[in-house]
Amino acid sequence: MALLTFKGGVHPPEHKELSNRIPIRDATVPKQVVIPLQQHIGAPTKCLVEIGQEVKKGEVIGEPTGFVSAPVHASVSGKVVAIKDVPNAMGRMVPSVIIENDGKEEWTQLEDHPDYMKLSPEKLREKIQKAGIVGMGGAAFPTHVKLSPPKEKPIDIVIINGAECEPYLTADHRVMVENPKEVIEGLKIIMKILGVQKGYVGIENNKPDAIEKMKEAASGEPNIEVVALQVKYPQGAEKMLIKAITDREVPAGGLPMDVGVVVQNVGTAFAIYEACRYGKPLIERVVTVTGLGVSSPGNLRARIGTPVGDLINECGGFSNGPMKVILGGPMMGFAQFTLDVPVTKGTSGVLVLSEKEYVPSEKYGPCIRCGRCIDVCPMGLMPSMLSILSEKEFFEDTKEYNLFDCFECGTCTYVCPSKRPIVQLIRLAKSLVKR
Amino acid sequence: MAVAKKQQELVVTVSPHIRSEETVSKIMWTVSISLMPAFIMGVYYFGPKALLVTALCIVSALFSEWLVEKMAGREITISDGSAFLTGLLLGMNMPASAPFYIPLISSFVAVAITKQLFGGLGYNIFNPALVGRAFALITWPRAMTTWIEPTAAFVGMDAKTTATPLGILKEEGMHKLLEVFGDKMSLYTQLLVGHKAGSLGEVSVIAILIGAAFLLYKRYITWHIPVSYLATVAVIAWVFGGKEGLFTGDPLVHLLSGGLMLGAWYMATDYVTCPSVRKGQIVFGIGCGFLTMLIRLKAGYPEGVMFAILLMNCFTPLIDRNLKSKVFGARKEAGK
What we know:
The complex is a heterodimer of chains A (435) and B (336).
Chain A: E1 24-26, E2 32-36, E3 45-47, E4 54-55, E5 60-64, E6 72-73, E7 78-87, E8 93-101, H1 121-130, H2 143-146, E9 157-162, H3 171-178, H4 180-194, E10 198-204, H5 208-217, E11 224-229, H6 238-246, E12 261-265, H7 266-278, E13 284-290, E14 298-303, H8 308-314, E15 322-327, E16 334-335, E17 349-354, H9 372-376, H10 383-391, H11 411-415, H12 422-432
Parallel strand pairs in A: 1-14, 9-10, 9-12, 10-11, 13-17
Antiparallel strand pairs in A: 2-8, 3-5, 4-7, 5-6, 7-8, 13-14, 15-16, 15-17
Helix pairs in contact in A: 1-4, 3-5, 4-5, 4-7, 10-12
Chain B: H1 3-6, H2 24-34, H3 36-46, H4 48-72, H5 82-92, H6 101-115, H7 128-139, E1 147-148, E2 161-162, H8 165-171, H9 174-181, H10 184-193, H11 205-217, H12 224-240, H13 251-256, H14 260-267, H15 278-298, H16 305-322
Antiparallel strand pairs in B: 1-2
């Protein structure tokens, strides 16, 4: 059977072999955690603690200030030693709470629910909201908001995103192999909340062990189907995933809910299960530490707030002449200037590119209009024209070429033989054009 | 390695952080290599003169590129292969008997004027090699339409001049063509292999197709322009090409003759001067085919490939603007 997919896309070298067979292990809990008070898209949180205050593990330290927001919890027990601005993965300064770990690992009171499936949808949603769960694939959009679609947008399909289409990353892969039951339970909770009868798990075909485990875990669930997807970037982009699995096209400028679909990442589904079953807030996540620039790549379950430098050290430190440290994958991740930046809810990987993998990208040539970017653009745009217009500062004209439909996946820039910084030129235009 | 120590040296750039291995110069050199079978066949049929004409074109192309870039204070890009490719293509579009100054001057027109003065690689409106050839044809009409007979023998004797198959077809008709080449089978075979008069790189259709197949396999070109171009030529040749009325033309003679194959696979597919969206490429190919046949059947020249492609080059921006790619999830506008 032909594998499901979308039109366009590319297949960069995967490099998943560096870490896809290495079981998840717990990262050493750091002496000090740095917890940004905003780790999600939406309103920031209000700080609830003061310097000197003792906090327990799982205690709320940042309270949401709106509906589109998510609480932030202490990931260790200990004392608040500072509240200050620290750079996040995007290089922006974010107010953060710094907690000195007392090593006691003392939990705050958690609400255990062995019979969680008997809870009402409202109650389940509330537990997810309280646990501070956000999309863990990278976008970090508050999950309870996605699970509260307006009445006029009926949802009939839920998809768990196990594509993990970014090269190198294997965190979701390992979660599916090691915790398939929990991921399926997470999916069932989402389906219950939304009153949906049909659930899918979409997995790229380069993870046969994950597909097998997930199929096994879903074998008793007639409403849940595990589907294999073609290995192609950006297969895990929501719109592409929905197209591949349901053949529904999210309208330009629209959201998945416009076609009756809600997509959640594998890690998010796992966190949802833990929140509903044990009342556990989102204070840790699986992070792939990989790339030829790190001695022994692996998949670590790290506390939120762990500095990425600690994770690199834990994986044997640098090797092969490290050139770039990237949070996220190589296609959409952010290069870091400091290793003090903490792991947050949206950190899927720490990628260290070595001299061997590093490509300098300062020098580029004119567009030769070869059309490769047009062929691969998953959104059907003309990145060549967008880049030329932006380069020549005809910013307003970029709107005619559907500027705002670009979700900056970087596929065009990957294939460009002139090595043009197409995505960056598009970002520039977006920031200068009024919608 | 200690983590803290290294931090100072980290490179910070925007995503994506990996790039494909494709480069402009790799494309240009690969296309040049794919032209070798056709070029070698040209040298085989027309001797060292073919080699000389092409070499002069290439040298002049590289020099022109260097000169303008030097004068304009731009980066010297002669190693990217694009000027080499233009020179090679122009040489292959010349009769092997062209006197030395024609390749030198027309290659300068191709690279210095058509390409560099419009802003260099990526900015030219017209296919540089074809402008060079058009310039030569208009400036030296006799030299550019004097064809020597293919000999295959590497001997110093002066080859006889003769007419191209399309010239014969235009002036005297199909019966004369059959008289010259024997029967129909032998005509097609010789047209295919390349034993005919013509520009030195266009004669061997089979060699051109080998190169084109390689480019298709490498995905450096796609079928859209060549196939729509050739199909249009075939249909028009069949319907209007015969002397005995509609539907009596011989499409194969038209497909296998003149510069059509070289033009359809190598000149019309020039990235810079053809549309970049697939449906636009099909329109472009059909336009090229229509204009080629209009010239071949109704205009003063026996061959129309060059002017057809150059005319369609003018329409490229218009086609690209009006036939944009289909945006994912684009809403259908009401009433359309």
